[in-house]
Amino acid sequence: MIEVRDLKKEYVEDETSTQALCGVSFSIEKGEFVSIMGPSGSGKSTLLHILSFLDRPTGGSYTFSGRSIDDMSDKELAHVRNKDMGFVFQAFNLLSRLSVYANVEIPLLYSDIPPAKRHALIEDAVRAVGLEEKLHTETGRLSGGQKQRVAIARALVTDPNVIFADEPTGNLDSHSGLAVMEILAGLNKKGRTVILVTHETQTAEFAKRIILLKDGLVESDTPVIFDGTKKTQLK
Amino acid sequence: MLFRDAFKTATRSLAHGKMRSVLTMLGIVIGIASVIILMSIGQSAQNLILSEVEGIGSDLIIVIPGAPASGNFSAPASAQGIIITSLKERDADALRREPSIVAVAPEVRGQAEVVYGNNDESVSYQGVNADFFVARTLGVKEGRVLTKSDIDSGLRVAIIGLDLAQTLFSERVTPIDKTIRLNNMSFRVIGVLDKGGSGPFGVDQGNIVIVPLSVAQKQLLGINYYNDIVVKANSEYDVNFVKSRIAFVLRQNHGIMTADKDDFDIRTQEDILSLLGNITSILTLFLAAIASISLLVGGIGIMNIMLVAVTERTREIGLRKAVGATDTDILEQFLIESILLTLIGGAIGIAVGAGIVGLIYVVLSTFYASLGWAFAFPISAVLLGLLVSTLSGVAFGIYPARQAGKKNPIDALRYE
């Protein structure tokens, strides 16, 4: 589903260039749950931005569902983001003055889904994260954990193939963080591909595979096995 | 993105900051209201002037000395202060012999100080003959009009306008047979004009002194020519035919062979209405143009606030782009917001303008009923108001909307 080969990203500012990704290669199959880990400055956020079509690489190749990013216009990238990708951000990025319903509706505004079908989709997505009672509550009045669940509902509403989560538990307490990760794990069990960026090992271990980045390169790419009591990342 | 979704999104954003939206609209409200008020007042003034000119009768023709002005809009040379002496007594005599003409009233005019007792007033005076009252269908409220014998004998008699009578004489004193001084010459008042009546160019006749033509020419002005000749057409003839006959007679008198050499200009009521209509329309447009400066200021206010909104909502723009909005979707959303602001502001401005125009009408019709001011609220002003407000929404909203549309989603999502 996702295949990157020798992926590079160079930022040039004031005649100074920074190599954020120095040639990353891996593949992610449909239905995988992958954590991308690494220290600050390792290039994990840059990689996530490229994988989620928010940015373009400066070298190498990236193929998503058989199509190269190089062959797609910005408008096509926006269309794929809307149709095939869902986003969960560390800072939630909810419009606090709007209700849960209106926030979850946002991706549908830019989709081909007719208005008549939207209501049911929004209700289903909100139900999936257990917030149906808060449907018409302003998101500014919700707790951090509830806000992140709204963000997940927003990511789900267009029924995307892949969910990109960028430090989804970074702003949450451990209890809320756990609840959010369980929802993501549940979505993965139902067949959705989940790609997670995190620096927390506990969070990363919800995934079935961890890609460790260091200095813009893949340092390790290992599956996570469950031994009955805890998950262990194989070296 | 469907238009209804873009519209809903825009209205939500505006509703969120109600006070800001209202204050932003204020500039447009004032601008549109100013344009509406000035256009309506201009229209009312135009109607008033034209109705007064219409009151002089469609069979009235005015012969002005000097070559015809080019086009109806241009003022005649004589009206620009150039003295032209081509219209003389023999012209009036020749016109009197025309069967298609029932009255020929040459006129001369001047400015003078009129004094009665301790009261004085600066006025216009007119030297006329007896036909003047036939041609102009003017009557007197008190006394009598000038007769042929008054003219022929060169008596220093005068008819004064109604407003002048009130200025010079107290209510208890009748002006008739009183002696007034005009340019230090004594004139006996024999009549007071009745209310209303405009001169051929819309001159107010309330503050005027009318004296015999011969006296005005010889004793007051010392001239032997006329400022104009007012002709009343025989109603059995078409006015344009009479106009052509006048031209024929005057060309014969002045030895002119072709029309392009004419040293006179003939204007019917229709010509004068057209001239005045053009002048007042230009004046109205000029006033509207001045008022539109406030619209410009209002529009700049809209642009300013929209730029602030784009900056404030950078993360929202980033989010919308992340979940599938294109540059165009974002541009549309912000453009609709600015158009909505200006359109609603324009609608309120039209309502405010209509209210103020109505108030002006009520005040004028209550306290200055004699003015005959009519309520005019041209539909063109409403349409123009809506069109201009929509266009200013586009003009002043496009730059902020483009800025919003061009934002990079990653930078926008990271914006603090």
**Overall tally of structural domains of chain B:** 2
Number of domain modules of chain A: 1
How much helical structure, as a percent, in the residues of chain B?
A: 55-70%
Query: Tell me, what's the shape of chain B?
Result: elongated
Find the count of extended strands of chain A (DSSP E, 2+ residues): 11
* Quaternary assembly: heterodimer
Structure, described:
The complex is a heterodimer of chains A (235) and B (416). With 235 residues, chain A is α/β, with parallel strands linked by helices. Chain A has a single domain (2-233), classed as Rossmann fold (3-Layer(aba) Sandwich). Chain A is built from seven helices and eleven strands. In chain A, strand 10 and strand 11 (231-233) form a beta hairpin. In chain A, helix 4 (115-128) crosses helix 5 and helix 5 (144-156) packs parallel to helix 6. The two termini of chain A are 25 Å apart. The mean pLDDT of chain A is 91. Chain B is an alpha+beta fold and 416 residues long. Chain B has two domains: 3-53 and 275-414, no CATH class; 85-262, no CATH class. Chain B is built from 13 helices and ten strands. Chain B has helices at 3-16, 18-54, 89-96, 131-135, 148-153, 162-168, 213-221, 239-254, 269-312, 314-322, 327-367, 379-405, 409-414, and strands at 60-65, 101-116, 119-128, 140-143, 157-160, 179-182, 185-193, 208-212, 228-233, 264-268. Chain B has a six-stranded mixed beta barrel with strand order 2-3-8-5-7-6. In chain B, strand 2 (101-116) and strand 3 (119-128) form a beta hairpin. The longest helix of chain B is centred in the C-terminal third of the chain and has 44 residues, at 269-312. Chain B is elongated, with a radius of gyration of 31 Å. The A-B interface holds A 49, 52, 54-55, 74-75, 78-79, 81-83, 87, 89, 93, 95, 97-98, 102, 106-107, 109-111, 115, 154, 158 and B 1-2, 4-5, 9, 12, 16, 315-316, 318-327, 329, 409-410, 413.
